[in-house]
Specification:
The structure is a single chain. By secondary structure, the protein is mostly beta strands. Helices cover about 5% and strands about 35% of the residues. The protein folds into two domains: about 1-50, Beta Barrel (Lyase, Ornithine Decarboxylase, Chain A, domain 1); about 55-98, no CATH class. The protein contains one helix and six strands.
């Protein structure tokens, strides 16, 4: 959104071929693209992508728009990582509802 550049790479960088791909977000909006026509290492269904500087998908700007739970956030420095925020569950999403 807004023409921002997001560095994106597979979490597990196995030796695979490269492909041209669009990386999109989970909401039903035409502008929900992280990247268009980006050359990336091929990934299999279920594999994770690291999206750096995720903007509104990080907790700072996130909301529960379209009943989407907030994502997990992981801090990475070199080979070390730490869970910064756990992924919201459906139960978290409806907490406080009548």
């Amino acid at each position: 959104l807004y023409g921002s550049y997001h560095q994106i790479q597979p979490v597990m960088r196995n030796r695979r071929s490269q492909l041209l791909a669009d990386i999109v977000g989970p909401v039903c909006e035409t502008g929900d693209f992280f990247a268009r026509n980006r050359t990336l290492l091929e990934v299999e269904p279920g594999e994770l992508l690291a999206i750096f500087t995720a903007g509104a998908y990080g907790n700072v700007l996130s909301s529960n728009y379209n009943a989407r739970p907030r994502p997990v956030e992981v801090l990475v420095e070199g080979s070390l990582w730490r869970l910064a925020r756990r992924r919201e569950s459906f139960r978290d999403l409806i907490r406080g509802e009548a």
